[in-house]
Amino acid sequence: MPKHYRPAGKKKEGNAAKYVTRSQAVKYLQVSLPVFRKLCILKGVFPREPKKKVKGNHHSYYHLKDIMFLKHEPLLEKLRDMRAYEKKVKKAMSKKNRDLAERLLTRKPTYTLDMLIKERYPKFIDALRDLDDCLSMVHLFAALPAADRVVDGEKIPVSRVHNCRRLSHEWLAYISRSHKLRKTFISVKGIYYQAEVEGQKITWLTPHALQQVLPEVDYRVLLTFLEFYETLLAFVNFRLYHSINVKYPPILDPRLEALAADLYALSRYLDANGQSSSMSSEAITSSGSDQAESELRLAQFQQQLSSNEPGALMNLVEDAAREDEDDLETQQCKNLFKNLKFFLSREAPRESLLFIIPAFGGTVSWEGEGAPFEEFDQSITHQVVDRPSQGHKFLSREYIQPQWIYDCVNARIILPTEKYIVGCVPPPHLSPFVDNEAEGHVPEYAEAIERLKAAERKEVLPLPGMGKEDLDDPQSLLGIIDRAEAIEAAKRKQKMSMKEKVYHEELKLELEGAQYSAVRSDVDDRVAEADAASDLRQMAEDAANMSEVGMPRKKRKLLEAMKIGRQKKQDSINLIKKRKKRIDEARSSA
Amino acid sequence: MRSKTKENDSDKLKTEQAEKDVQKLKAKTVEEIAKRIEEAEAADESSEDSPFVSEFEDSDDESLTGDDGSVDESGSEKSELSGDEDAVQSSDDDNPVGSSDDKDTVEDNDHSSVSKGDGHDNLGVEDGIGGSDDSGAIVEESDSSEDEVAPRNTVGNVPLVWYRDEEHIGYDLSGKKIKKKEKKSKLDSFLARTDDSKSWRKIIDEYNDEEVELTKEEIGLIRRMVESKAPHADFDPYPSYVDWFDWDGAKHPLSNAPEPKRRFIPSKWEAKKVVKYVRAIRSGLIKLDDKPKEEPRFYALWDESSSADRQGLAYIPAPKPKLPGHDESYNPSLEYIPTQEEINSYQLMFEEDRPKFIPKQFTSLRSVPAYEKAVQETFDRCLDLYLCPRVHKKRINIDPESLKPKLPSRRDLKPYPTTCYLEYKGHKGPVMTISADSTGQWIASGSKDGTVRIWEVETCRCLQIWNIGETIQEVAWNPVPELPMLAVAAGHDVFILNTRCGSDEQQRKIEELLHVDPQAGADDSDTNVSIVDWGQDEAHGGIRLKHFKTVTKVEWHRKGDYLSTLMPSDILFHGHICSNCFSDNVIVGSKDGKLCWFDMDLSSRPYKVLRCHPKDITRVAYHRSYPLFASCSDDCTAYVFHGMVYSDLNQNPLIVPLEILRGHTSFDGRGVMDCKFHPRQPWLFTAGADSLIKLYCH
After folding, report:
1. pLDDT tens by residue, B441-484
2. Would I find Nucleus among this entry's keywords (chain A) (predicted)?
3. At what angle do helices A131-142 and A219-243 cross, to 10 degrees?
C-alpha cells in the first residue's frame, strides 16, 4: 500500500511493496471486479511482471503506482455514482414508483473519455501509433448486423453499430481522399489495409461484408474496449479532417446515405469541402444559423461546379499546389489509376473498392442507385466483375476480377489483365507484408511482378536462379567471411596432405622400382578428390565448431537456441520449396 | 358513546364486583376459554340460559366516558337518584331474577350518573342514547337494578387471600357470612367435566365462590376480543361520516370575524419562490427545453500548446498484431497449401505444435466465406491487451556466429600438429599406451595383445618386441637420455627393460644397473617387502617388480632416478608425483568429456572448462617446450590446444583450440587411447584402439 498508509510490519520497498496482486488491488480500490476491469481497460493499465513474484506465480501483478493512478481517477467516482444510480432506479422500479423511475431515467449520469485519451496519448502521433487495434475493432463492429440482439446476456446496441459504421467510413474517406493507402491484402480473415499517416504505418483488418459469427464471449469486455476506441477514433478523425480543412462531423447527403453509399457520400463531401474551404471560406463563415443545410447545399454546389470547366481548372491548380507537399510515394499512389474509370458489378465488394480506387486516383461507379455514371458510359476503362461468365461485353473496356485491383495496388503498376479475365482462376494473391528475400522463398508470381516492375522502370534484372540471393542476403555474406577463411585453410591443408600422399606413394613405387604411371595417379586423383570433398566439409565444420569449445555455458545455450530457431525457419522454407518442386514436377509431367 | 348491550340476567348479578372479579380472572381464563372455544367449537351445542357477567374490559372506559358526561351535565339530580338507586338495589334483593329478559334496555344518562354518583365506582353498563323513557320505569329500574345488583359478597375489593383460612368468603348484604362451598376432589371435578359437555364454558368465580357458565354470546365476545376486534359483533369501527350540519339554510356566517387581508393579496412567499425560479432560469440553472442542445462532442484534443508528457509509469506499448503472410491469402500460391497427408499428420502433433491456421485456396473472391473466428480473435486480442503482463524484453537479433568468441588467428600460433604424417602398424590389439624417448628418436608402445614395441619415429620401423603376455597398462621411457630404459606396467608387474637403443657404453651401464641381486632388492625396500618384490627378469632382460595388485600407471622422476607406480586404491611413491602442468596450471581431463584448466594460484575452481569431447577423455598431454596441450578421447578425435601462460601475472592464460585430429576408427567402443607429444618437435603421437599409432606433424 502507499507509503503513508503503510501499516507496521509491511514491506517498505522491493517487489513486495511495489507490486500488488489483482485481488489486492480490487480490495484496495473498493470496487467490484467488473468495475476494476472497466477502469483498467479505459485507463490502459495492464499487469506487469515483477522480478520476483512475491505472492506466487499464478497471480497477475499490478504496479502500485498504476493502482494509485486508478485510485485518483475521477472516473472511479463516476462509476460509483452510476452504480448508486442504477440501484436507485432498480429500487424505484421494484417499488412500482414509476414516476420516480422515469424521472431518474432522464438523469442518467454520464461520463466522457476525452481526458483519458489525452492522458494516454499526449501527442497525436502516439494515438496514431496505437490505432491498429482500434481500427480493426471498429471495423469489425461496423460489420455486425445492425439489429438489437442479445448475445450471451449482453446487448450490442444498434446505435453502437451505426456509430462504428460512421466512424469507419469517416476514416476510410479520409485515407482515400488524402491518398494515404499503401498496401492491401485479401486474406481469409478479411481485407487488410495499410496506410501511412504522419509517418506511422497503420494496419487494420476489415471483415468480409458477410454475416458475422457471434460466439460466446464476454461482450462486456469487447464493448468496453469499443467504447474507448470509438471516442479515440472520433477524436483522431476530427483532427485529421481539420488537417485537410474539412469540418467534422461531416454532413452527408441523406439520399446517398439512405442508399448505403455512405463512403461515396463522404468522399464527395470531402472533395467538395476540401475545395470550398480554400475557395469560398467566406461563404462558410457567412452561413450562420442553419449551417447544416447551407453546408449541404454548398457541398452539392461545389460538386456541380467541379464537373464544370472552371471548377475542374481550380481542382487542377489545387492539385498542383498540393503536389509539392506530397512525398514521392503519395504522388505515386495518387497517380496509379489516374486516367482509369472503373465500374463495379453488383457482386464485387463495393465498399472496399469504393475505398481503394479513389485512394489511388481512379474514378469509380457501381451498379445501383445514386451511382455517378451508368454502366453504358463509354469512357469506362475497366469493369470489375466477379462472376463465372459475363453476358454482354463492351469492347471498349476490360473485364477484370477484383483481385486485379488489389494486386495492382500492391505492385504499384498497372498489371496486364489477361490473367484476371472473367471466369478464370486468378494468379496467386500474395501478401505485401512479407519480405520475400528475408523469408527465404520467393513465390513465382512475386518474381513475375518484380520483372514487370523492372520493365516499367526500364531496368534489366538478372534472370532468376543466377545466385542473386547469395549476394543479396547480408547474413550469408557475413558468414562467408568467416567461413571462407576456414574453407580455404582446409583446402590448402587438404592439398598438402594429398601431395604428401602422392609423394609417399611415389616413394613407395620408387622403392618397388616400378615405373611411374600417369594413369594410376589419375585414378588416385579422382578418389582423392571425392575424399577431399567430404574432408573439406568436415574441416570447415571443425573450424566453425572450434570456437564453441571454450564458450561459457550461458552463451552456448543461447547459440543452440538460436540455431534451433533458424533450423525451424529453414525447415518450413524447405517444406515450401519441396512442395513447390513437387507441383512443378506434376505440372511438367502433365 | 355507549352502544347498547345485550345482557343475560341470571341469578348471578352483574355488579362491579363481579366485573372486577371477572377482570381478575380474565388473565387466567380468557386464554383458557379461548382454547376451549376452539376445541369445542365443532361440538358446540347451542345452549342458552347460561348466566354471565357480560362486560369485562371495555366497561371500564365506557364507564369513564360516561362519568365525564355525567359530570358535565347533571349534578343536581344526584340526591334523588341516589335514593332511586337504593330502591333498585333493594328490589334486586327481593327478586333475584331467574328469567333472562333479553331485551335492549335504554337508559338515560341520568342513570349512569346515578350509578356514578352512588359511590360505586366505575360502573355503567347499561346506557343508551336517546330512546323511549316511557317504556316503563319499573322495567327500567329493574333493569338498572340488575345492572347494579351487588354481588352476593360484600367484602369489597380486598385480596381474597385474607379469607383463605376462613370458612367463609365474605358477607352477604345482610351481614351473614357466606360459607365456602365444599371443594370437589380433583377426580370428581374431572369426572364432572368429562360428563358435562358444557364444562368447557364453565369457569369458577372465586370471589363469589361459584361456578359460572358462559353463554354463547359471551363466548363470541371473548373470541372477538382475542382476535383484537371490537367486542360487540355489530360495532362498526369505521362508520361513514354523516354530515349532519345543514349548511345551506344558514342565514348567518359561522364566524363573525372579518375576512383577513391575506386572502386578498398575492402571497409573498410564492412571489419569492417565483423570483428564485426566474433567476435560475435566467442564469441557466434550470433548462426548460426537454432535449439539451447537442454540443459538439469532439474538439481539437491535441493542440500544440498543451504539455505532452505521459503521466505514470513508463508506457509499454502492446505488440502489434502479426501481419499476415502469403499463406493467409484467400488465393495463396499453391506451395503454401499443405497436402492432405500433411494435414492428416497434424493430428499426430501436440496440440500446441499444431498449426492454428491451415491455408486454403478459394478460386474467386465471391466464394470466400465470413471468417468464423473474427469475433473470437478480437476478443482474445482484447484479453491480451488488458490481462497480459507486459515487460520490455530484449530480443537479440544477431548472427549466431557473433556469439562465438573471437579466436586469435591460428596461423600466428603455429607450429602445431595438423595432419597425420605417419602410421605405425604392427600391433594386433588396441594400443593402450605409448611413450616417446627423450631424444625423440624412439617411441615405445604397449598393446592389449601383450607386446611392447619400440619404433623408430622417422621410419616407422619396429625395432624391438617384447611379449609380456599381459595387457600393457603403461610404458614409460626413462627421461635421462643416457639411460634408455623402459618401464612397463602389465598386470601385477612392473618391468624395467633394457631397450638397447643407446651406445655400447650406455648399454654396459644399463646392464649394470639392471642387474639386481635379491639382497639389494630387499635392502632397497625393506619397509615395503610385502608390497613390492624385486627380481631379475631373464626372459626380457630387465628387472621385474612384482606388486600385490594390478599396476595401472608408472612414471619416472624427471631425473630418472626414481619411478612411481599407481595401483588402484593405493598410490606408492617411488619418488616425486608428476602431473601435467605448466608452472602452476593443471589440466584435468574427465570422463564426462570436459577438459578443465585449473590455475592453482587463482582458485580451487577451474579457470576454464573446455567442453570438446562428447565421450570420455582418455588422456591429456602437454608439450615440454611448445605452448601446446592435447586431449584424446574415445570419440576417435584428439584436440590440440594452444595454452600460453604469461609470466605477467595480470595477463590471463591464453587458451585456443587449434585443431581436431581425426583418423582413428572406433574399436569396441574405444577410440584414441593415448597421446603423447614429441619431446622436441611439435608433433603428436596418438595410440588408437584400432591398433594403430599415428604421428601428426605440422
Report:
1. 888 888 888 888 888 888 888 888 888 888 888 888 888 877 78
2. yes
3. 110
Q: Average the pLDDT over B70-97 and give the result.
A: 40
CB contacts < 8 A (A, B)? 275
Comparing B299 with B74, which gets the higher pLDDT?
B299
Which cell numbers in the block locate residue B49?
340460559
- Chain B residues with CB inside 8 Å of A566's CB? 400
**CA dihedral of A136, A139, A144, A149, whole degrees rounded to 10:** 80
Q: Do A47 and B379 touch (CB under 8 A)?
A: no
Q: Is the previous residue joined to B415 through a cis bond, with omega within 30 degrees of 0?
A: yes
Contact call for A187 and B328, based on CB within 8 A:
yes
Classified as helix, coil or strand, B602 is coil
Question: Would you say B333 and B326 are in contact if contact means Cβ atoms under 8 Å apart?
Answer: yes
d(CA A78, CA A276): 43
In a mutational test of the A interface, the residue from B327, B336, B396, B404 whose CB has the highest number of chain A CBs within 10 Å is: B404
Contact at 8 Å (CB) between A237 and A128? no
What distance in Å separates residue B269's CA from the closest CA in chain A? 27
A 10 A CB-CB count for B316 gives: 13
The three-class DSSP label of residue A503 is helix
Q: Are B673 and B474 in contact (CB under 8 A)?
A: no
Nearest CA in chain B to A144: B375
> Which residue from A123, A187, A225 is facing B329, i.e. has the nearest CB?
A187
Contact A74/B at CB under 8 A: no
Question: pLDDT at position B387, please?
Answer: 93
How distant is the Cα of B7 from the closest Cα of chain A, in angstroms?
50
The mean of the pLDDT values for chain B is 73
pLDDT at A195: 94
Contact A50, A18 (CB under 8 A): yes
Higher pLDDT, B569 or A109: A109
B697, closest residue in chain A (CA to CA)? A497
C-alpha grid cell, residue B92? 334486586
Helix and strand totals (H; E) in chain A: 25, 11
Residues of B in contact with A210 (CB under 8 A): 369-370
pTM of the model: 0.62
Distance from CA of B267 to the nearest CA of A (A): 29
Q: Residues near A265 by Cβ (< 8 Å), separated by ≥ 6? A: A252, A253, A256, A257
Q: What is the pLDDT of residue B48?
A: 40
Stated as kind and residue range, the H or E segment containing A173 is helix A158-177
CA nearest neighbour of B691 among B660, B661, B670: B670
Q: Which residues of B touch A21 (CB under 8 A)?
A: none
SS (H, E, C) B634-691: CCCCEEEEEEECCCCCCCCCEEEEEEEECCCCCECCECEEEEEECCCCCCEEEEECCC
Residue matched to cell numbers 655400447:
B504
Tracing cell 462531423 back to the chain, one arrives at A249
Chain B contact for A132, CB < 8 A? yes
Contact B474, B433 (CB under 8 A): yes
With beta carbons under 8 A apart, name residues in chain A contacting B383: 221
Average pLDDT of every residue of chain A: 79
**B454-464 residue pLDDT tens:** 888 888 888 88
**Neighbour count for residue A428 (Cβ, 10 Å):** 21
C-alpha cell at A106: 432522464
Contact B331, A428 (CB under 8 A): yes
Nearest CA in chain B to A485: B409
Percentage of residues in chain B with pLDDT exceeding 70?
A: 72
- Measured CA to CA in angstroms, residue A354 lies from A361, A426, B50 at distances of 11, 21, 106
Q: Do B396 and A558 touch (CB under 8 A)?
A: yes
Please provide residue B45's backbone torsions phi and psi, each rounded to the nearest 5 degrees: -95, 145
